[in-house]
């Protein structure tokens, strides 16, 4: 049984016959496709990925790769899932907003072995994997990924498009800005601020707040360089064509 707020129970029941566009053709999308099938949330009608020479995973859905394809499929669709993981939170959030403007509804996918405390406030488009935990009085933004075994402790504020990777631990009262990425096995100590677009490297221990768009690594975490995550959008698609 999924221990999540009531509205997510309602959402999953209501989506039992959804016709879904899955954006992305790699590992994250493949896993989400399996979750959709396992929980009988709906039917993936189309899988979108514009990557040349992509090695495609097995699916009965139609593979598409252009904005024109999406528009042609729209009459057969009512929902979408954006299956883009990694440090591409800005792209994931922007794509989600663009698809919402096409009158498609975002679907949250929460694994049966994940836990969300009922006191927490959850945005749309959440992707939550086995063993992930959201503790009391948290606010989780839209299009957030909480990977396997990750923990978000009490009273945290997690912005839109954030990705908390596997086994990362976010201590209490941490604020994570939009599009930030917390790497595998990283630890963020209490009461810190992780700036918008920041990247915390795998295994890092963050003992002080991190500037926006800063990449930090090591124990304790130290600044390595700055990044421009808004440039990532061109890797996926020109949303102006939708």
From TrEMBL:
Pfam families: Hexapep
Binding locations of acetyl-CoA: 163
InterPro entries xref list: AcTrfase_PglD-like, Hexapep, Hexapep_transf_CS, Trans_hexapeptide_repeat, Trimer_LpxA-like_sf
Domain of life: Bacteria
Catalytic machinery residues: 154 (proton acceptor)
SUPFAM superfamilies: Trimeric LpxA-like enzymes (SSF51161)
Keyword Oxidoreductase: no
Alphabetical UniProt keywords: Acyltransferase, Repeat, Transferase
Family matches, as PROSITE patterns: HEXAPEP_TRANSFERASES
Site entry (Increases basicity of active site His), positions: 155
Record keyword S-adenosyl-L-methionine present: no
GO molecular function: acyltransferase activity
Binding site for substrate: 85
Record-stated family: Belongs to the transferase hexapeptide repeat family.
Stored NCBIfam families: NeuD_NnaD
Protein's name according to its UniProt entry: Acetyltransferase
Species name: Sedimenticola thiotaurini
């Amino acid at each position: 049984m999924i221990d999540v707020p009531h509205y997510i129970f309602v959402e999953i029941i209501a989506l039992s016959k959804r016709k879904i566009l899955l954006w992305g053709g790699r590992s994250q999308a493949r896993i989400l496709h399996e979750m959709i099938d396992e929980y009988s949330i709906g039917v993936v009608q189309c899988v979108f990925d514009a990557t040349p020479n992509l090695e495609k995973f097995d699916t009965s859905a139609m593979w598409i790769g252009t904005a024109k394809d999406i528009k042609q499929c729209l009459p057969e669709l009512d929902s979408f899932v954006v299956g883009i993981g990694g440090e591409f939170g800005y792209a994931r959030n922007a794509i989600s907003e663009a698809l919402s403007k096409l009158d498609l509804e975002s679907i949250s996918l929460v694994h049966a072995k994940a836990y969300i405390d009922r006191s927490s406030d959850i945005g749309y488009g959440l992707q939550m994997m086995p063993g992930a935990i959201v503790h009391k009085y948290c606010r989780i933004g839209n299009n957030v990924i909480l990977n396997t075994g990750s923990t978000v402790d009490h009273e945290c504020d997690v912005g839109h498009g954030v990705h908390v990777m596997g086994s990362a631990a976010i201590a209490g009262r941490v604020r994570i800005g939009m599009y930030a990425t917390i790497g595998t096995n990283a630890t963020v100590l209490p009461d810190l601020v992780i700036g918008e677009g920041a990247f915390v490297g795998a295994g890092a221990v963050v003992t002080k707040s991190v500037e926006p768009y800063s990449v930090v690594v090591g124990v304790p975490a130290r600044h390595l360089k700055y990044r421009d995550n808004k440039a990532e959008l061109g890797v996926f698609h020109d949303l102006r064509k939708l």
